[in-house]
Predict the 3D structure of the following.
Amino acid sequence: MSAQATRPSGSRGDRQSADCCTLRNDLGWALGALSRSYAKAVSATFADVPGGPRGYQVLAAAAREEPGSQLALAQHLGVDRTVMTYLLDSLAEAGLVERRPDPADRRARRIAPTAPGRDLLGLLDRRLRAAEHEVLAGLESEDERRVFRALLRQVATHASALDPAPAGCGT
């Protein structure tokens, strides 16, 4: 007798198989599966960074001189400004960033990476690229990965413009 004949129709195993096939074309399922895979792959990468992935984003944005003021950086990353203060305090205490007076506005502070911050960022970038390569291994070629990244960036930019990250607490 086959395994299928011993399993009643509609059993949990049959439902999982059917759901998998049904969900394969569902955008929400695909985004969720990709997000879980990405989070798992990069979790170890950011283990030693104050603030984890958010700390990395702050460090990377500061090193690339993206929105330089504390407030602009918080808005750019969709982080509540009070949360950003604590995050920057942690990164500064770890010696990874520093707050400098903004030459254009003495009331504002610009966020800049320190030399150890730049060194750590280089290491994290290499680790992140390796984790991303693992996540995108389902794409056969580097060209497919490049196209996927470009399309994903385009859709994400559009979605962000339609519904920018709120500035409320907890974001």
